[in-house]
Amino acid sequence: MSDARAHYLNAGHSMRSWLLTKDHKRIALLYLASVTALFFVGGSAAVMFRLQLLTPHGHLVLPETYNKLFTLHGIVMVFFFLVPAVPTVLGNFLIPLMIGAKDLAFPRINLLSWYLFIAGAALALGATLYGGVDTGWTFYTPYSSVFSNTYVVATVMGIFVAGFSSILTGLNFIVTIHKMRAPGLRWFRLPLFVWAIYATSFMFVLATPVLAMALLLVGLERVLHLGIFNPALGGDPLLFQHFFWFYSHPAVYIMVLPAMGVISELIPCFSRRRLFGYEFVVMATFGIAFLGFLVWGHHMFVSGQSAFAGLVFSFLSFVVAVPSAIKVFNWTATLYKGRIRFHTPMLYALGFIGLFTIGGLTGLFLATLGVDVHVHDTYFVIAHFHYIMVGGSVMAYLGGIHYWWPKISGKMYPDALGRWAAVLIFVGFNLTFFPQFIVGYLGMPRRFYMYPPEFQVYNVFSTAGASILALGYLLPLGYLLWSFWYGPDAGDNPWGASGLEWKTSSPPPVRNFETKPVVDEEPYDYEGGRYG
Amino acid sequence: MRFVPPLASVIGSQVDGLFWFLCGLSAFFAALIAGTILFFCIRYREGADADRSHPPPRNLPLELTWIAIPFAIMLGVYWRGAQLFLRERKPPPDAQQVLVVAKQWMWKTQQSNGRAEINELHVPLGRPTKLLMTSQDVIHSFFVPAFRLKQDVLPDRYTTLWFTPTRVGEFRFFCSQYCGMGHASMIGRVVVMRPKDFEKWLASGRTPGAPQEQDPGRILFRRKGCVACHRKVDGQGPPLEGIFGKTVLLSDGRTIVADEDYLLESILYPAAKIVAGYPNIMPSYKGQLTPEEESQLVSYLERYGTGRQKEPRP
Ligand SMILES: [Cu+2]
Ligand SMILES: [Cu+2]
Q1: Testing the interface with A: which of B32, B75, B150 to mutate, by most A Cβ within 10 A?
Q2: Residues 6+ apart with CB under 8 A from B307
Q3: Binning pLDDT at 50, 70 and 90, where does residue B311 land?
Q4: Which chain A positions have a beta carbon within 8 Å of B55's beta carbon?
Q5: What's the whole-number mean pLDDT along residues B149-158?
Q6: CB–CB of A310 and B141 under 8 A?
Q7: B181 C-alpha to center of ligand 2: Å?
Q8: B9: which DSSP letter?
Q9: Contacts of A232 in chain B (CB under 8 A)
Q10: Which residue has the higher pLDDT, B314 or A83?
């Protein structure tokens, strides 16, 4: 950052200029730092329990500790990494740039959202330092509300507070996308990433309150001994599961839709093609967002829910698979007659399609009633949702970070090293999680701190894979940080990409654009294009 | 190295069949997508000399095709899965019954003649067995991989699981719903025996010299004097012979199927649902029975008047 040109990074160097900033780009970086730290917290927990599972009678940690480790991993990764990562980092940074606005509609509320997020994370992690929680990230009652002797209340309050961050962020995006698009940027000229964040924002606003309420009730039941979920006092433990999954199934799409939005940017850019079937991909986005609210009961086929409910939820779960399939097919078709380059972001995008496809296909096993009865709550489920959330969301997140890093930092990272890291992550991921499909079908239940010896060989593969994966994740952390200070200047548009965010300088000026942009072209205007 | 667990139930082979079909289907689609991507990536890589004229921005028939074909296949899979599920949910009326009580962190099973076991379950080969399950604390789940079956076990409620074993041997069962510190040690074994051996095993649990009658539910039914009112004819309360699974007309005009939860509710809170034509006079038994006794009584009522109340068929 030696150049004299003013941009958002050199607009102030004091702590205060960061912590009280209202600039969406700086807030995005605050989120980037926070979710990265939280990702490595959640990851360390995973490393520890993977080591425990190396042997059937793992003696590394006590059972109580093991239970707290997987709970910490789940809570941090879901609520404090996967849910916020793409929307708050990439969404915050890019939405105003992509629609030609100078900031989000409510910059102060945007900053407030970050503080709420930090407060929530501090509460939840504070509870961990104090002694931890052992309920699993699912907080099933009456275990969580009556029987567990751990710090449940502080943890659920942490998630409750962070939930408001999600809700406010969602509202902010919705208003911004409605009201602040540049002249000429009609709805059907919006990049898919904006559509995805828009749909996700509705899910934030509609689903998060249900989770907040359910967790609040768990807290109240613990403190005041109410009989809401506790059957001994006339409560219904299944009611909690309904509340919980009413949020947590849509939450899967909160994690996946923005990721799909990222992929829909990367594939056209590195194929030099317009996104194939743009309208279908948009409609599929909303199909997923809508249907995602109607399938929560597929987590409860063996819970004691009625057989009829099982039939309905199973059917709807098959229906929600269709729009995801549409997207995969359209991305694939975008490559046709393209001019494909394999930069780091593109490798992540291709990896995403592969892993997300496997995750989606194995989701069909779980939607199938007769098969789910066997594999439910086994490692098959663990493998499936890691393919979606890690193979899908995390790959897309990293792809997005690598793609927009030149815009964010103004610097370029070593692309060859980036490609190696992407391959390492892909290999490590598959080695970690593919064996879990098999050990799951063999019958190994989840959340076991020890297990019968016949499951060991698969667990050894998983642990080996996890160490490769850990290395794969550390590499980008290293070279991205390095490039931020020492990397070569990237130029304004190193990929020759379309989209308004590439029309301004890198890093962008505080007000984003020197002159208010006017849009007169369709999205993904790459036809016949060469690179930069 | 095993890829599938041992198989020991009738439904299990049907589940495996569907599972392998899904594996094949997934492999086909995964290969199709990966193959296409790979092909495009090679054919249209930047340096390659390929025909790139008139790239299509969209193609409606293509979109409709790749919506319709996967959806049609999925409908078939859905239907087959639903069929198996409904089968798993409908125990045959002649199934022999075992009571399963879960608590942190053990399983207690009890045959209808009163023989009880901890973390073990003996069942006869080739005969349907139905488990009537409840928990004394948190939610657990009874999972027998070899039968390809599991069912959550809830406090203050009954859930059931049934199977017909097809192989003699010992098979693991697990608790598959996280239930606290000892979750991973809630492991037991199902012992499938030839019917003759099973009868012998069942009888061997009887202490010599003890009275013939050992069905704990039947003993309770007598001791609590249920039959004084619930007589076959002219009782003050409705007759209970063969009540289980029947549709009952209530005094407010509603009807209800008499399942385990209804039976339990009627013992604990008799006034909640009054059978049409009978006075509301039964006292509540809430607090008079231990949870275990409640389960034994419900289990007995399920078999009452069906010719199966004594012991499983010889
Ligand atoms: Cu779900
Ligand atoms: Cu248990």
Answers
A1: B150
A2: none
A3: very low
A4: 273-274, 336-338, 527
A5: 94
A6: no
A7: 9
A8: B
A9: 155-156
A10: A83
Residue B103 pairs in a beta bridge with B106
- Structure confidence at residue A44 as a pLDDT band (50, 70, 90): very high
Length of chain B: 314
Cα separation of B137 and B104, whole Å? Answer: 7
Question: pLDDT confidence of B52, banded at 50, 70, 90?
Answer: confident
Looking at chain A, which residue has its C-alpha nearest residue B148?
A374
* Minimal-distance CA residue of chain A relative to B61: A277
Q: Which two tokens stand for residue A314?
A: 């199973």
Q: Which CATH number fits domain B216-305: 3.40.980.10, 3.40.50.1220, 3.10.20.340, 1.10.760.10?
A: 1.10.760.10
Tell me, yes or no, if B290 comes closer than 8 A to chain A by beta carbon.
no
Q: Which fold has domain B1-42+89-212?
A: Immunoglobulin-like (2.60.40)
For residue B178, what are its two tokens? Answer: 């996280």
Convert B283-313 into a string of H (helix), E (strand) and C (coil).
Answer: CCCCCCCCHHHHHHHHHHHHHCCCCCCCCCC
Closest ligand, as measured to the CA of A298: 1
pLDDT, one tens digit per residue, over B220-253 is: 887 777 877 787 777 778 888 888 888 888 888 8
Q: Report the SS3 class of residue A250.
A: helix
Q: Where are the domains of chain B?
A: 1-42+89-212, 216-305
**Highest CATH level, class, for A22-503:** mainly alpha
Whether the CB-CB separation of B10 and B163 falls below 8 Å is answered with yes
**CA A488 to ligand 2 centroid distance, Å:** 57
Residues lying with their CB under 5 A of ligand 2, a single-atom ion = B 140, 175, 179, 186
d(CA A158, CA A120): 4
- Decide if pLDDT at A54 tops 50: yes
Tell me, yes or no, if the pTM score tops 0.95.
Answer: no
Going from the C-alpha of A527 to that of each of A275, A350, A495, B55, B57, the distances in angstroms are 10, 21, 15, 8, 10
Percent of chain A residues past pLDDT 90, beyond the cut: 90
The DSSP-derived string for A166-233 is: HHHHHHHHHHHHHH-PPTT--GGGS-HHHHHHHHHHHHHHHHHHHHHHHHHHHHHHHHH--SSS-GGG
Predicted confidence (pLDDT) per residue in A418-476, tens digit: 999 999 999 999 999 999 999 999 999 999 999 999 999 999 999 999 999 999 999 99
Q: Do B85 and A373 touch (CB under 8 A)?
A: yes
Highest mean pLDDT among B39-53, B75-89, B112-126: B75-89
Q: Nearest CA to A115 among A172, A170, A168, A40?
A: A168
Nearest-Å Rg of the Cα atoms of chain A is 23
Determine the distance separating the centroid of ligand 1 and the alpha carbon of A449, expressed in angstroms: 25
B 78-97 residues inside an 8 A Cβ radius of A: 78, 80-89
